[in-house]
Design brief:
217 residues, Rossmann fold, 2 domains, two-stranded antiparallel sheet, 44% helix, 17% strand
């Protein structure tokens, strides 16, 4: 049988890191004498590139704010992360079933690796891909190329809470499992796939079953 690769998003799919992100975002704003933004507004933007988030609130170069965000986040914010309910047990189950597991995130790749290590889930994953000099976003063609070159004969399933995860699945021409632990509805996740890929929607990662996985391959 072909190898099956299950590629997870990180924020709101595997972890709850809203506290660390909110604190880091407002720290960066304060550092440039800008007014803070409410927790709810920041939370709804999670999943977007940082520069895009900051560009909504200031005409300053967003890269400067993103740099300040990452300074705080790398020192304090990552340690405010928590695994979502049932995630570790589900990862264990999937690994025991010989699935290949990975992470694709909008975070800096180095930060994502630190979070996985801190939460002691890094050992489950064959790869953790995030923003680097060569990968600018989840929808960067370079990321698609890297993944397809790494697993040329494998069956890939993308799992995430954000419409961008559905679009990544569309770019890879592979199935998508949407989870509702973020800020997007089942309708929004299905709409993002544009009816081009097979999609399942579950409430949480822990609700994914082996039968579900095989049903959409």
């Amino acid at each position: 049988m072909k190898e099956t690769v299950l590629s997870f998003d990180l924020d709101y799919t595997l972890i709850n890191n809203r506290k660390g992100i909110v604190n880091s975002f407002n720290y960066a704003l304060r550092n440039f004498n800008l007014p803070e933004v409410s927790k709810s507004v920041i939370q709804e933007m999670i999943g977007l590139p940082l520069n895009d988030m900051f560009a909504r609130f200031t005409e300053l170069n967003p890269s400067k704010l993103s740099f300040t965000f990452r300074e705080y986040y790398g020192a304090k914010g990552i340690y405010q992360s928590r695994l979502l309910s049932g995630v570790k047990n589900k990862l264990k189950e999937l690994k025991l079933q010989n699935f290949t597991l990975g992470i694709i995130t909008s975070k800096k790749q180095s930060i994502a690796i630190k979070i996985a290590e801190y939460l002691k889930i890094d050992g489950f994953f064959n790869y953790i891909l995030g923003e680097t000099e060569n990968i600018k976003s989840k929808l960067d063609p370079n990321l698609t190329q890297i993944l397809l070159e790494k697993y040329p004969k494998s069956r890939i399933i993308i799992i995430g809470d954000h419409p961008k995860d559905a679009k990544l699945a569309r770019n890879l021409n592979c199935p998508f499992i949407g989870v509702l632990t973020g800020f997007h509805t089942a309708y929004q996740l299905k709409q993002a796939r544009e009816n081009e890929i097979q999609t399942l929607i579950v409430k949480k990662v822990k609700n994914i079953t082996i039968d579900m996985i095989y049903s959409i391959l």
